[in-house]
Amino acid sequence: METESFDNRLFMARKTAATRSSATVPPDPPGWRDAPTRDERGRLIREGLFRAASAVVGERGYQEASISLITQRAGVAQGTFYNHFKSRQDLLDQLLPTLGKDMLEHVGRCAREGKTLIEREELGFRAFFSFLRENPHFFRILNEAESFAPNAYRAHLDLVAAGYVSFFRRAAQAGELRGFEDRELEVVAFVLMAARSYLAWRYVYGEEQHDDIPDWVVTAYRRLISGGLEGAAESTPAGSRVRA
Amino acid sequence: METESFDNRLFMARKTAATRSSATVPPDPPGWRDAPTRDERGRLIREGLFRAASAVVGERGYQEASISLITQRAGVAQGTFYNHFKSRQDLLDQLLPTLGKDMLEHVGRCAREGKTLIEREELGFRAFFSFLRENPHFFRILNEAESFAPNAYRAHLDLVAAGYVSFFRRAAQAGELRGFEDRELEVVAFVLMAARSYLAWRYVYGEEQHDDIPDWVVTAYRRLISGGLEGAAESTPAGSRVRA
Amino acid sequence: METESFDNRLFMARKTAATRSSATVPPDPPGWRDAPTRDERGRLIREGLFRAASAVVGERGYQEASISLITQRAGVAQGTFYNHFKSRQDLLDQLLPTLGKDMLEHVGRCAREGKTLIEREELGFRAFFSFLRENPHFFRILNEAESFAPNAYRAHLDLVAAGYVSFFRRAAQAGELRGFEDRELEVVAFVLMAARSYLAWRYVYGEEQHDDIPDWVVTAYRRLISGGLEGAAESTPAGSRVRA
Amino acid sequence: METESFDNRLFMARKTAATRSSATVPPDPPGWRDAPTRDERGRLIREGLFRAASAVVGERGYQEASISLITQRAGVAQGTFYNHFKSRQDLLDQLLPTLGKDMLEHVGRCAREGKTLIEREELGFRAFFSFLRENPHFFRILNEAESFAPNAYRAHLDLVAAGYVSFFRRAAQAGELRGFEDRELEVVAFVLMAARSYLAWRYVYGEEQHDDIPDWVVTAYRRLISGGLEGAAESTPAGSRVRA
DNA sequence: GATGAATGAGTGTTCATTCAT
DNA sequence: CATGAATGAACACTCATTCAT
After folding, report:
1. D88 CB inside 7 Å of strand E
2. Which strand F bases fall within 7 angstroms of a protein CB?
3. In A, which residues are within 8 Å of B226 by CB distance?
4. D115 vs D7, which has greater pLDDT?
5. Given a cut of 90, is residue D58 above it in pLDDT?
6. Could you tell me which residue, A52 or D27, shows the higher pLDDT?
7. Rounded to a whole number, what is the distance in Å from the CA of B107 to chain A's nearest CA?
8. Beta carbons within 8 Å of D238's beta carbon, 6+ residues apart
C-alpha cells in the first residue's frame, strides 16, 4: 500500500532518540547468538522479534510493519518469525496488551502516592506522560491499534477503564467523590482517558515536540477536572503542583 | 493483508443503515452519463468518486479502500481516477477536511441555540452525535485518519480546536468562563474534543450498539464538565436536559 | 515443493522437440507487441499465457507450473496473468478441457473413415497417437490432471466416454456390436480409453521413446479387442492394417 | 498452494473408513517409546513414519504430504525424519513399491485358484478390488505416483506387467492362450492393468461411491476380454460368476 | 477526458532441510 | 540417535500507477 506521502514528522522526531535510524534498519545487537540453553535462545529471539516489532510500529506504524522489516531488524530469518508467532496479526495483536500492562502498572504505582483524589489523578496523569517518555513507541502502538488491532484496542480501553472505575469507587466510598451514579463513573473514566491521549497527541507529539508535557498544561487539566468549567475560578492554587 | 481477526462489528452494524450492502458493492447511480456540459460531467464524476471513497472508507476502512473498489463503486474506470486526483493518498487526504467542515457547521449551528456556556456545550455535544447518526461514515473516516491521513487529521483537530477556543474566548469575555488563562483554553478544547470521540467509541459504536448516545451519558458528561470531579455534587439538576 | 529428484526423462526427451530449452526459458515470440486493436492484443496475450502454461505443464508438470514460469515464458509481467485468469488453478483447470476437445475432434474425424466397428476403433486408436505426436504436451496435461485438476479430469473422461458410448450404440443398432447390455457399453468405453492411455505411457513415452506407436502394438491391440483373449486365434489377418 | 477448487470427494468418502479423522490428525500410538533394543526402536520409528506417510498421501495426496504432517502423525520430531530417510522424496519413492508388492501378492494368490485363463483373470480382477477395499490408501498412492514418484510408478508397472506376461506365457504353453506373439503379451498386460485402474476410478471412486466393484461391471469386463468386441455375443453365460 | 489492460514491486506465508543441543 | 528451532528460497496473489487507445 502506498504511504509515501504520509507526514510522519509526528513520530519521526522521536525516532532518532529511540533508534539509530530507520532508512537503513540496523539489526538489534544479536545477543542470543551465544545463549546458554536452547530455551533461553528461543526466549531471546521471541523477545527480539517483539522489540523489533514495537520499534517498527512505533516508528513507522502498523501499516509498514512487514515481516521482512521486523525480522531484518531482529536479525533473524523471515521463517523464524513463524516459529514464534502464528501470523503477523498475531504478533501485532500482542503489542498493545503487553505494553499496556506495563503502562497501567507504572501509572497505578505512581498514582497511589497521592493523598486526595485530585492529587492521585494528577500523579497518574503525569505518570502517563513519563511512561511515554520512557517508551517512545507506546503512543503510536496504542493509537493505531484502533485501526490495526481493534480487539486489542478494545481490551486495553476496557482494562484501563475498569481500573479507573474501581479507583473512583474507592474514592466515592471514602467520600472523596460525590454526585456521580455508579454507571456514570465509566463515563468519567473514558473522558479522562481520552484527555490523556489527546493532550499527548497535541502537546508531546505536536508541532513543538516536547519531551514532556508542559507544566501549564497539567495545571489547566487539573483545573478543569477538579472544578469543571464553572468551578475553575475557585480552583486549587498553582502552588500545589507535584512532579511525577 | 490478513484482516480476518479484525473485529469489524464496530462499524458493520451501522453499515446496513448506511448503504445497501457491502458484499456486492452496488455502483452509485451513474448520473453523469447525461451531463449537460463537459465541466459538469467532470464535476459529477469527481463527486461520485468522493462519495464512493467516503462510503468505502466508512464501511471497510482506509486500508481496504483500493482504487479498484472506489472506482467500481463510483461506476467509472480505474484510469479515470487519476484524471481527478493526483493519487490515492490525495483523495484520502481530502475526505476528512470535507466532511469535517460539514460536522463543524452542524455542531456550531446547534450549539448557538444555548443560552449558557454549559448549555451550548451540551447542545454541541449532542449535535456531534446527531451528526454521527446522519453521517455514519464520518466516525471511521475521522478516527482512522490519524493513521492513514495524518496531515488531514492534524488540520481537522486544529480547526475544531480553534473554533472551540474562540467559543471559549467569547464566553470568557462575557464573564461566563473564569479561571483559565488564554493558552489554557486550548487544553480545555482538546479535552472536550477527546471526550466526544471516546464516548462515541464507547457508547455509540461499543458493544451495545446504540443509535444515539444515551441520555444518562450526556448527564454524566455535563456533570463532569460543569463542576469537575469536586463540584459534581452540586451539579445542575437533571431537569435541564435538552434534546438536540 | 521439492521435486528435484523427479525423474523427468519421461517427458524431457520430447521437450527438446517441443521447445528450445527449459533451463533458460525463452519467451514466446511476443507477437502481440504490435497488435492492431486493444481487443486483439488482449486475445493474443491470453492465448500466449495459455500456450505458455501448456508448454510448462507439458514439459515440467503442473507442480512446477508457477505463475512466474508461465508469465516469463509468455513474455508478460506477473500481474498481467490476473487480468486474464482468476487464479493459477483457474488456468490449470482450463488446460485439459481445451486441448481435450481438440483431441476428441481429431480422433472422431479420423475414426469416421472406417467401415467396420473394429476398423473405426483402430483408426481412432491411431488418431489418438497421431494427436499426441502433434501435441506433445497433451499427454502430461491429461495424466497429471487427475491429481492437479480433478474436476477437469473427470469432465474430460466423462466426455470421451459419452462419445464412445454413443459410438457403440450406433454400432449396436447397426448390428455390428452384439452381446453387451446398454449400461455395459460404458465399461467397454473405459477399458478402451484406459488402454490408449497406458499404451501411450508404455510405448510412446516409455524407455525406448518412439515418435509413434509401433505397428505391432496396434496389431496386438486390435487382436485383443476384436476377439478377446479367447478369440485372438482366429483374429483378422495382419494385412488389414491401416495408417491414420 | 491453492487447492480449494480441488474436488476431493473422490477420496474423502473413503477417508472416514480409513482413519479416525483428518482435520485433527491423531498421532499413531507411539509404540516405540518402550522398545527393547535400540535397533528395534529405530525400526519401529521407521515403520511409523512409513505408515503415517501412507495415510497422509492416501487421504490428502502427495502434494500435501509435508514432513511436518507426516512426522506429526507418526508422533516424532521433524528432525527424526532425516535419520531414517534421505529426503522427503526418498520416502515418497518407497511408498508404492512396498504397497505394490502387497497388492501383487494378494492378487496372485487369489488368481491362482482359477481353473481357466479367463477365470484366473476374473479372480485377479476381483482381487484387485478387494485389495483396494482393505487398503483404502493404495489407489491414490498408486495413481498420483505417476506425477509425484515417477520412478516408483514405472517400476511398479513394469513389475506388474512382468507378472502378467509370465502368467500369459504359462497359459500359452498350456494351450489356453493362442494367437499372440510373445512381445504382444506385454501389450495385453498393459491393457488389462489399465482397465483395472480406470474401472476402479469410475466405479469405485466415481460419483456413486461403491464399496466394491459392481457385479455387472465384472460381467461386462469378462465379456470384453474373453471374446472381444466381436465375440461377446457368444460369451460365457452369466452363471459362471465367481466371488473373490 | 474516459478507458481498462499492463506493470512489477511488494506482501504474508509455507516448507524441506540443516544442525546445535 | 531424537529433537525442534532456524533457515531462506519460493510461492500465489494484490494494487497503485501508467499509458496507448
Report:
1. yes
2. 1-21
3. 228-230
4. D115
5. yes
6. A52
7. 19
8. D219
